[in-house]
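Lab notebook, bench 4. We co-purified these components, and the gel suggests they stay together. Before we commit to crystallization screens, I want a quick structural picture of the whole thing.
Request: model the full complex, all chains together.
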Amino acid sequence: MATTIETPRHITKEVLDKAVIRFCGDSGDGMQITGNQFTNTVALYGNDLATFPDYPAEIRAPAGTLPGVSGFQVQFSSGDVYTPGDSVDALVAMNPAALKMNLADLKPNGILIVNKDDFGETDLRKAQATSNPLEDHSLDAYRLFAVELTRLTRVALQELGLDAKSMDRCKNFFALGMCFWLYNRPMDSTVRWLDDKFSKKPLLAEANKRAMKAGYSFCEATEAFQISYEIPPAHLSPGTYRNLSGNQALALGFVAASQKSGLPLFQGSYPITPASDILHELSMYKDFGVTTFQAEDEIAAITSAIGASYAGALAITTTSGPGMALKTEAMGLAIAVELPLVIVDVQRGGPSTGLPTKTEQADLLQALYGRNSEAPIPVLAAATPGDCFWMAMEASRIAVKYMVPVILLTDGYLANGAEPWRIPTLSELPEIPVKFVTDPTNFHPYSRNPATLARPWAIPGTPGLEHRLGGLEKQDVTGNINYEPLNHEHMVRLRAAKVEAIVQDIPDIVPVGDPEGDLLIVAWGSTYGAITAGVNAQRALGKRIGHVHLRNLNPFPRNLGEVMQRYRHVLVPEMNMGQLVLVLRSKYLVDAQGFNKIQGRPFKQAEIEGKIEEILD
Amino acid sequence: MATATIPPLTKKDFQTDQEVRWCPGCGDYAILSAVQSVFPELGIPREKFVVISGIGCSSRFPYYMNTFGFHTIHGRAPAVATGLKLIRPDLEVWVATGDGDALSIGGNHTIHMLRRNVGLKVLLFNNKIYGLTKGQYSPTSEIGKKTKSTPYGTADRPFNPVSLAIGSEATFVARTVDVFMQHMKDTLKSAAAHKGAAFIEILQNCNIFNDGAWHDLTEKEVRSEHVVQLEHGKPLIFGKNRDKGIKMDGLELEVVQLGNGVTEKDLLIHDEHHPRASYAFVLAHMEHRPGFPTPIGVLRNWGDVPRYEDVVTTQIKDVIAKKGAGDLAKLLRAGDTWEVKA
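Here is the predicted assembly.
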């Protein structure tokens, strides 16, 4: 609910419970930095938030063209935020191409800030615009603020002695300053960031600070907007918070798992969008004894990790879909030799190279079944950016406890999206006990822990434990090569039973919302936010809906089949052609129906609500 | 105070109870025997040895060595071994591989392991054929070779494994032959003494699918005419009567007849520590020219390159020394944070 407060100087200050803002421009315009700075500031203020960076696969498509448009959206609120928002309240468009690509998402009467200086004939031609939108009344439905961002930035920086190109690169901070004024936010955290980022180039720090302050002052002085907004802090659970993206959270989670297990962390990885940031993050944590190995290819990335696991490290490999395809044979090796390993798949649109920077959930069946022969692997999925931290720890815990490779699925939306994350104390972190075998008495490489069916972890260098591992079928207990028919069947069933045994660690699921009723939504991964928001809204209208968000996809929680029986309908929204729904239908003989979106973009809350209404109304 | 003396290791300590399943007469038996003889002489405790292999006849090797062993997947042994060495640089890791495993499916890992100079000893069993899959041509098979998969002869030009290794910036490159037992043992010992990546091509006979592939080099009547043994500091002499030598003029080699004014002083004196890789490359390529012998021995032994695993682990140690050991609670709270009060 909006309340209006009169502030001096005839500027209305409106209090809102939430707002969605999107910065868009050319990929050289610094829109990701601008969005991140705005996000950090609202996070520090105490708003709940969710972000959606959306950028092209091309590093620099020709400037000013439609394929070169990059965007960053953030929703921030005094209440709970589950999604970056279906549509935007304020759009900052740095050129005609950005305007054209993003205008459809701006709410009617929404605030539209454009850089007037970039609407010349050439700019319009590059954006394939037939007329100038600033003049042809096509923007009449919005509150348009056409500002000379380039000229005003140059004026603000004229004393610094920078060349025109360097000055123009600061105009995104002029726009950022305007937005800080519009939403009544302080500039100090961005000032700190600039000082830190450009500590060796103080002139650039100064230029960006001046541009930002000029943007802020411009609004103050010209009373351009006549209105500004205030979004009070959210009532998050008490604690210390930081803003965290999914890829950052994964990196922290693996470092935490390394510390809790006492094992050195090894990451074998080959750069691939959108997973590379995990490698960038972990390569900084050498003070935690982290070894990062940028391998020659995806196969060496996973096989080096298998070698490190053999040596007694907490070994991980991180990739996206095409890399998963290349790693499959090696996953089979890890299954056969029963060594712990975590394989992170940050999913993106496919097939083949597909949509490298866009999100999708279409690797689920690949994760579950995409290997030769009977090759079961536990599969986990993170639901939110912050959840990536906990799932990294959980995947590591399962891997070393059961001596298995584990696949952890995230996606591009989780990887780059950010949310406020309550920082846990060390005592809140799960224990990850690990014991290497050292006693050669009665040592057998494939003897079994009766509870977990895990074999002992016997690392090279331990006297008396010399033994041979390999991908050939082996006899249980001794590990000797064995091709006997009944032994093979025994080993196949044993490897499956070992993965099934993990169910003992998975708590029974409790649906959020109605414990029984008309509709159960079963989902996994990054659809969590949109579904939660949609279900909340529809339940507020009196509908009886439950929501189960699976983090364990193999094995499933024990009571999943029973829970699904408690509802008249089961709906499975997924960003794929219907992969989880296929598994649920075949495993539980339940008439679950899919709801599928394959556009490289996350679900919107409205889409979830629309589907719920279609089923229940 | 009595000090327990550990009895010295013997060849027997490195033999396993597993039945060796190579074909009778296979050259692999001699290689296994040589390695089992050399390992006890290295003064390294048995538990420190790890033998890693890929897929192929040669890759069964770890099962027959009573050390830690890992039979991995086709072509990937160098990558598995690299991961192992990065975590445990103290281990003595040997890789057993073949011409298909190392040069075809695993070519990428082979070249990158060599250019990184990972401290591994690589034994490449080169029999110029695919044995385990029963007789297809390999990347070292001679052009025109008729095999099961090339009934009209191969169209591929072969790799010369040692020149590939030299081109990959390998710091130790040698060649030996399965039937030259003493030479093989000496070569293995030289490799063991090298800190960085050591690449050894072992010419090996597959008596089932490619019998006699190396007869020109191994048969008593002809081998001295066809093989020149490289020894550091010694001239390159070959021939039944040790009457031929090799001269070097710039990058050009020439076979000369000794006598008539030509003496050993005119010949190329081998320098395995030669600072230029091009020197070793010229030697590696002589066998492709008519009238030239095939060199065996250490072609290149370049000790001045640090091991990859040492560089990586030193970097970690240096960061810890500079910044202190990481504090998890601090890491989680890094960057901008804010408090939400109850």
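Residues 235-268 of chain B form one domain. Worth comparing against the SEC data before the next meeting. The first strand of chain B starts at residue 49 and ends at 53.
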